[in-house]
Amino acid sequence: RRVLFRSKGNKIQIHSDHAEVIQEIFRQYLSGIGAGRIADNLNNAQIGNRFGKPLWTPRAIRYIIKNEKYTGNSRWHKYYTTDTLPFRNVINHGEKESYYATDTHEAIISNEDFASANVLMQQRATIFSGAEHKENASGALQQKIRCDMCGNIFRRKTVRSHIYWVCLGHDKKLTDCTITQIPEVQIHAAFLRLYYKLKHQGSNILPQMLTTLQAVRRQRLLWNEDVIELNKRISTITSQNQLLAMLKQQGGVDPDIFISRSNELTEQLRATKLEKERLLNACRDDTITQTQALIDTIEAGPDFLEQFDGELFGELVDRIIVENNERLRFRLKNGLELTESIERTVR
C-alpha cells in the first residue's frame, strides 16, 4: 500500500520519495495534529492517491507512528502461530520470545521523535478508552445496518447496560417484521470472523475478483470507438515519425525542417496519448479501484483483531444486511457480499 522498504539481497533499502512522506507524518503528529487531520491533509494533497481516490486513513497513520522500522531498528516475532487447531497468527504480547535488533537498516526517524510520538499516541488513546471507546465503536454502525425483510434501518438501543440493534419496522409493529433485536457484541464478533477469513482463509477472493474485473474492462475498451480512433492516430503519428527519421538518415530532408517537423509530431503524439489516458481514466470502473483499496487495507491490517475496530470496519464494509434472525450479509465497499452467522448467546 505504502511501500517504504524494499529488500535487495539481505539488506533493507528505503524508497527516498516515500521517506519524505513518513517524515512529514511524524512532523505533523508531533506538532499536535491528529491522525485524522493528517490523513485528510495527505488525501487533499493527493499524495500517493490512486486515480484520485483517497488512500490515507487515521488507522494507517497510527500504524506508521507505531512502526519501529522507521528508526532503523526491527522487532522480530511480533506475531506467532498458535500450537493448537485451528492454527492462526496472533499478536505476541509476551507469550513467545521476541527480539529487538538495532541498526538493521538506515533510519529516517530519530529514536527520540519515535518515542515522543508513541507517548503522545498513548496519551490520546486514553481519551477514547472505556465507555467512550464503546460509543465510538457503536457509532461505526450508525446507518449501516438494514433489514432485508422490511427494508428498514436498525437503530441502537440500550437495555439494562446491554447494547442492541433493533429493526425500526419490528420496533414499531412486531407483526410487520419478525427479525428480533441483535446484541451489538454479536455484530462485532461476526465482523471479526469476516475479517479473519478475508485475511487468512479467503486471500484469493479479492485478487481473483480484481483480475476478472480488469480482464472484462480491457475487453470492453478494445471495442470502444474513441479508443480505437485514438490508437489509429497514435499509430499514424508514430509511422510518420519513423518515416521522417529514415528520410533524415538518407539525407532526403533539410535538418531545420526535420527538427521542426519532428518537434511537431512529438507534441501531437504526446497530446494524443494524454487524451487516450484521460479517456481510459474516465472509463475506469470504480469497482476495480475499490477492490484494490480493499486488498491494500487487508494486507496492511493486523493478522488478528482482538476487538472491534470501527475505522477498519468503515474502510471495508459499506453495509450490513440482516437476512434473518440467524444470518448477516456484509456488503464490502466494492459490492461483494459475504455472509456470517449470528451467534445469539445473549437475548
How does this model look, in words?
This protein has about 350 residues and is of the alpha+beta class. Helices cover about 50% and strands about 15% of the residues. The protein has twelve helices and 13 strands. The protein has helices at about 15-30, 35-45, 60-65, 110-125, 130-140, 170, 185-200, 205-220, 225-250, 255-280, 285-300, 310-315, and strands at about 5-10, 10-15, 75, 80, 90, 100, 145, 155-160, 160-165, 180-185, 315-325, 325-330, 335-340. Strands 7-11-12-13 form a four-stranded mixed β-sheet. A three-stranded antiparallel β-sheet has the order 8-9-10. A hairpin with a 2-residue loop joins strand 8 and strand 9. The model has no long low-confidence stretch (mean pLDDT about 80).
Key words describing this protein structure:
single chain, 347 residues, alpha+beta, 4-stranded mixed β-sheet, 3-stranded antiparallel β-sheet, 50% helix, extended
